[in-house]
Design goal:
Blueprint: H1 8-40, E1 42-45, E2 48-51, E3 57-60, E4 68-75, E5 78-83, E6 87-93, E7 98-106, E8 111-117, E9 120-125, E10 129-134, E11 142-145, E12 154-159, E13 165-170, E14 184-190, E15 195-196, E16 202-204, H2 206-215, H3 220-223, E17 227-233, E18 240-246, E19 249-253, E20 259-264, E21 273-278, E22 284-288, E23 296-300, E24 303-304
Length: 307
């Protein structure tokens, strides 16, 4: 019988090599998964790209805007803000990073969205009452009761490219005009004719949206139900952006009302996103309630993409 003694040093070297190879493979796999995961947090509209994982600026708001619920771009560096308890419109200068004026327009109420057209502010209450007034001190305020109710729970309003047309989103029930619609809807409001168009501009059933979430490589259990909390139209592409605090999603529709893309929102970055708007250059602003702290606004610079 041969007296064989294994070379322990050689075996140790072999073992170290295998462990190093396995560690490298695991590391590379993690890097690929991380790269794929990071791509999910980027969203495009035409050639305009936004990295939702990396805001370019964060504006901390004063305590009275802890529950900021609506956001709109006005002009120059000024954003219009409303919160869902008092009837004030706040003018926030994001260059100076301060509120430069506040305008009283109504009593206490659940105000959820704001838009503007030709220096006129439009504020929507969750039960369908619309307030509009000139953006100045002590304005004359006009109130319009739209054909919505509390069960619709309106959460957003934005101006279309036609200055008389607004888009309004329902957070909950889509029942309107006696139609028992299931899912989520966006309606058009013609302010010139003071008419809500009966057929919804966007209608998403739960099953339809669940399939879209899965197609995007996301988990329905994590990102549903979809309950829109804000709406904005991209100034360069006319795409419609719907923001959802519940489920933490940003969803994009083309101007024909077809869903074209979506991206998840990290909870660590977006505490409770409620408002969304663009400036004239296509830079994106998203506001979030403070939930016990200060509310804030995040800015995402438009990054032109040729991909």
């Amino acid at each position: 019988m041969l007296n064989y003694k294994p070379n322990l040093m050689f075996l140790k070297d072999i073992f170290k090599f295998h462990m190093s190879f396995i560690s490298l493979a695991v590391l590379m796999s993690c890097m690929i998964v991380e790269e794929e995961d990071m791509r999910k947090y980027k969203i495009k509209s035409g050639d305009n790209l936004y990295d939702l994982n990396a805001p370019d600026k964060k504006y901390i708001l004063p305590k009275r805007l802890e529950e900021i619920s609506g956001l709109a771009y006005w002009k120059k560096n000024i954003l219009l803000c409303v919160e869902d308890e008092t009837g004030y419109l706040y003018l926030f200068d994001h260059d100076k990073e301060e509120i430069i004026n506040e305008i009283k327009f109504g009593k206490k109420g659940d105000y959820e969205g704001v838009a503007q057209s030709n220096d006129i502010a439009y504020v929507i209450r969750s039960d369908g009452r619309l307030y509009y007034f000139e953006i100045k001190d002590e304005p004359e305020v006009t109130k319009v009761n739209l054909p919505f109710t509390k069960k619709n729970d309106l959460e957003g309003i934005t101006l279309g490219h036609q200055n008389d047309t607004f888009y309004i989103t329902c957070k909950r029930s889509s029942d309107l005009f006696g139609k028992d619609l299931k899912g989520r809807t966006v309606y058009k409001y013609d302010s010139k004719e003071d008419t809500v168009i009966q057929n919804p501009y966007i209608h998403l059933t739960t099953k339809m949206f669940e399939k879209e979430v899965e197609n995007a490589g996301l988990s329905p259990s994590r990102h549903m139900p979809f309950m829109p909390s804000g709406i904005a139209i991209h100034p360069l592409t006319e795409d419609v952006f719907l923001l959802s605090s519940v489920g933490k999603l940003l969803v994009v529709f083309n101007k024909s009302g077809e869903l074209v893309s979506m991206a998840p929102l990290k909870r660590a970055i977006f505490r409770q996103p409620e408002g969304i708007c663009f400036d004239e250059k296509g830079n994106l602003f998203i506001s979030s309630e403070g939930r016990g702290g200060n509310g804030y606004i995040l800015k995402f610079n438009n990054q032109p993409s040729d991909q």
